[in-house]
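U., I forgot to send this yesterday:
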Amino acid sequence: MEFYLGIDVGSVSTNFAAIDKEGKVLYSLYLRTQGRPIQVVQEGLKAVSLEFSGVRPKNAGVTGSGRDLIGRLVGASVIKNEITSHAVAAIQIVPNVRTVIEIGGQDSKIIILRDGIVVDFAMNSICAAGTGSFLDQQASRLGIPIEEFGGMALQSSSPTRIAGRCTVFAESDMIHKQQLGATSEDIIAGLCEALVRNYLGNVAKGKEILPPIVFQGGVAANAGMKAAFEKELKTDVIIPKYYNVMGAIGVAILAKEKRKGEEGEKEFRGFDITDVKLKTKGFECNGCPNMCEIMEILLDGKIEARFGGRCGKWEALSKS
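Result:
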């Protein structure tokens, strides 16, 4: 079976997507990273290997915050940033898409496209307000399973006004509204609307948001957030079937487009590392006042990759 593999390595989740030569998704997998990117990638690759009976992908691509390290380990032909990968996937689903809203576990992005080309984008990775981890935290504090969070928001008839510009203010405001007797449904709906205002006022500030709008990332599963975006933007918001693995789909598409023999093509070896014990060790670089802590990945006793430095010196040495 001919297929192409995409891997999206993020701080909260690590996602896999396999597509055929027509771009159709054959398989997808969403795993929690839990601070163990290498081990989780090994687990995911083992699942992919079982799904395709050990048949190797024609090409593989890697995106996400851990793309350089994992791309090197698995032998990826394509290593791309999240903006490009999410944009490519969105175009595959909605060819005339003009705005992509992407909200993940710990960051959020907006991508502006015109005629299939990315013309602008912005990211917010400093404040966690509106991200999946913040919503998980608030659902836990309210004693509500996160799976029910969005549905409860839709049951509200009078959303409570919540201060959403900061996670600390939002949480304290929610507690205050609880003490005043507001229902959980109204508080949740108010929180969703506050987080949408925060996203539009910070991440999307100054951007021309035009439909069609595609909403992807883990937070797109929250029906309350979708409704809040549609209320604020006064237009429909499209949520793709594979909303939570769009980065992996996008980089799989880019791997598919990598022509045979093209410069940069590599031999995929990902399945070979599923049972290999990779060792890590660290040391402190004394090359400048930054004193960066450098992590080394050793495969069969040989240094496979280094990461953690600000200047890129050690990463460059590990690639030579």
